[in-house]
Task: inverse folding
């Protein structure tokens, strides 16, 4: 099922600016018991992005369509895409028409269950993230850096790929955020210049603080990766995967990671 501005459909205008320029945003939302999970966090990020891109969205219609799709799905995934809509040729937003809302439902991805219990190995990507503070943190439609990074490996032993910026600072994985247990507490990379500010990242930062184990947002260098005692990646579909190996480095599936994993499960399962 796919809704386009509230109507069942499968065709888009060829002059849509999301197609032409990546002029828009998206959210990928897990559904359980016919309800979208972490919806407040998803909408909060979408509002930040809409404000930054100056998109005037119909928030009441958008939320109504999300709830309708969730009720139809029961269990699964909703992908929400919003674009600036159709517009004139060229980069100017002058003349752009009504923003376009696309709401699609699909089944949950079938991730191997041992990734939760035994952890995953990372591939070290050579593709570097560019610095652009105006877009940093947003889940905008231009994800070519992630497409290039994900194309670097085919070996199924790698569940995710580590991505750095042009200064070799650790930023994120191709589809998830990172947390490192460093000097006895959690840190997560600063995303003020690049990367996606994930919904599960924000949720865990809030909840871990409530549990008395606060997270520091810092610039993470390669030495910290070598020195950390635990490491995990997270997103709003699968929750938390412990990271156990990369480039000859090894980490245990530690108790702090397992505690974070349980917090994520409470929100998703």
Result:
């Amino acid at each position: 099922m796919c809704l386009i501005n509230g109507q069942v459909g499968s065709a888009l205008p060829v002059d849509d600016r999301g197609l032409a320029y990546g002029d828009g945003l998206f959210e990928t939302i897990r559904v359980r018991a016919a309800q979208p999970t972490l919806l407040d966090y998803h909408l909060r990020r979408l509002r930040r992005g809409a404000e930054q891109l100056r998109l005037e969205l119909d928030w009441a219609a958008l939320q109504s369509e999300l709830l309708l799709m969730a009720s139809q799905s029961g269990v699964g995934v909703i992908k929400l895409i919003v674009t600036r809509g159709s517009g004139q040729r060229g980069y100017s937003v002058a003349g752009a028409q009504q923003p376009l809302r696309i709401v699609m439902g699909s089944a949950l991805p079938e991730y191997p269950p041992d990734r939760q219990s035994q952890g995953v190995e990372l591939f070290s990507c050579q593709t570097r993230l560019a610095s652009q503070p105006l877009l940093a943190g947003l889940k905008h439609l231009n994800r070519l850096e992630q497409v290039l990074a994900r194309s670097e490996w085919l070996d199924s032993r790698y569940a995710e790929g580590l991505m750095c910026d042009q200064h070799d600072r650790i930023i994120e994985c191709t589809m998830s955020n990172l947390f490192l247990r460093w000097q006895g507490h959690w840190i997560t990379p600063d995303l003020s210049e690049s990367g996606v500010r994930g919904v599960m990242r924000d949720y865990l930062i809030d909840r871990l603080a409530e549990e008395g184990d606060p997270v520091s947002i810092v610039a993470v260098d390669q030495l910290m990766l070598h020195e950390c005692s635990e490491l995990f990646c997270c997103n709003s579909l699968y929750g938390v995967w412990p990271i156990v190996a990369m480039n000859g480095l090894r980490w245990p599936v530690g108790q702090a990671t397992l505690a974070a994993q349980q917090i994520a499960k409470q929100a998703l399962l």
